[in-house]
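Hi, here's the filled form for the chain we discussed.

Project: internal
Contact: R.S.
Residues: 174
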Amino acid sequence: MNPRNRGSLVGGLVLVLVGLFLLVLQLAPNMVYFMRLELTWPFIIVGIGVLFFAGILYWGRSAAGLAVPGSIVTGIGLLLLYQNLSGNWDSWAYAWALIPGMVGVGVILTGLIEGKSPSRAVNAGGGLILISLILFVVFGFFLGGDLLSRWGVPLLLVVGGFWLLARNVLRRQV
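And the returned structure, exactly as it came back:
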């Protein structure tokens, strides 16, 4: 795809999204009351992260490295959205442990965009994701109160099981 087509693709996508947003506001004017800025400001940060991915669409493989900062910024925006909507700002005591996992997601995406085999891409970033989730559950167990003490261990077991399954499947493909 040449750069002119990529630019029109990204521009067209932005126009469609903005148009749909404005159309929803016309069809449901009361929606404005549900989209209060004091609650939804983290979407701005998520949007900045998505712009990194739009840059990948525009510049192609040469901009594959934008997947790492895009994953970090989008992930932090989603964390802030959860904390802002739930009021659980104390979760920063352990939520920081998810940032290395966000880097791992970016590394995997970078590898896939660059055309590496899925097994190599997952091996490159999967370890960061697993370590990040383990740290998140351990710190959350001690610092997060009831929520992670009830949900953390089962979630960690499920994620660990998926990790082992994915590694096994990807090794067979090589």
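Let me know if anything looks off before we file it.
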